[in-house]
Amino acid sequence: MTNKVIPLSIPTLNGNEWKYVKECLDSGWISSAGPFVERFEKAIASKVKASYAVAVVNGTAALHIALLSCGVARDEEVLVSNLTFAAPVNTILYCGAYPILMDADPLTWQMDVKKLRQFLEEECELRGNSCFNKKTKRKVRAILAVHILGLMCDIETILDLAKRFHLKVIEDAAQAMGLLLNGRHAGTFGDVGALSFNGNKVMTSGGGGMVVTHDKRVAEYARYLSTQAKDDAMEYIHKEIGFNYRLTNLHAAIGLAQLEQLDRFISKKREIAAFYKKALKDVEGIVLMPSPKDYEPTYWLYTFLLNSKATLDQRKAVIAALRKRGVEARPLWHTLHDLPPYSKAGSYRIEHSIHLYERGISLPSSVHLNTDDLNDVVKAFYEVHLFCRRSHSL
Ligand SMILES: *Cc1c(COP(=O)(O)O)cnc(C)c1O
Predict the structure, then answer these.
(1) Which of 57, 58, 60, 94 to mutate to test the pocket of ligand 1 (most atoms within 8 A of CB)?
(2) What is the pTM of this model?
(3) Residue 269: pLDDT above 50?
């Protein structure tokens, strides 16, 4: 496998992508109006069983609009995971609000709901129907629950806590397209959810995102804000600062074609996960990706942890060695509480997210990978791991 590269997560475009894009070009509808935008919105709403879906340019825009449409405002606080891609935390800052970074649960890798409860019970107080952080005196407005890696947050506990403390729940389901718990789709449990169709996600529209909700007012406000906040489109009257976050018809065309193949993509992700699980389960000290009992993960990226004594440098060396062998492995996200842009964010008892970041490795999980590719990944990992053991570096 000298020059072969096995990619982490790239799109498979074997469906109606060409046909639908050609329809856009032939009809001239290539920009931010056109029939595919509405068709894509309807198809997504129906797939995730949400009453409303509003298409936007990307998942980050979807999160920004989702927060604003729930009323997140300047100087308020939003509780969010510390172990996540940075986009959700950035969007809290776009609103002028403060993120409070919560630790990850060592078993589920998602936001630790025990610490979330403890934070709310001990560090916050209710005054009337509002929740305040006792230390900062700021109003706590919402919980932004990020479902990572095709696994689900403990959303039921999060919803219970939100109810008790009068908080909104926004779900970042960017990595969770197609993920169900008791027949309900990630992103549709709380007040509003955000999906991403970036090129590395389970399905793609080239670039794109979707705001999904059951709440008509949230949906209407999301559409208003994401289409330049036009109060009178003819007379150019605006009462608020709007955004041009509209998805183009071209992107929606690709998204619709991808959505038609989603179930197949997810079965393939599950097969890939089963393959890695079997191949890695006897490697000493390795912690496999969580296998929850109450739902079936979609395994956006199959991820495992090196043994508990592995250091950050060792994990970096393993990934570098895999990449040298053409295997596009990746670490989990750097914890956010210790990165410069988030120095003003609050954080609460951060500990496990650091260990997960230091030891986690995601393996190539692209839908097109065949058994030979997966065998090559595993062979490369065995070699690298054995070498590290022999040289006593792991
Ligand atoms: C990819 C991703 C986003 C951002 O989506 P884009 O479409 O790339 O803007 C947000 N949150 C999470 C957790 C993601 O993985």
Answers:
(1) 60
(2) 0.97
(3) yes
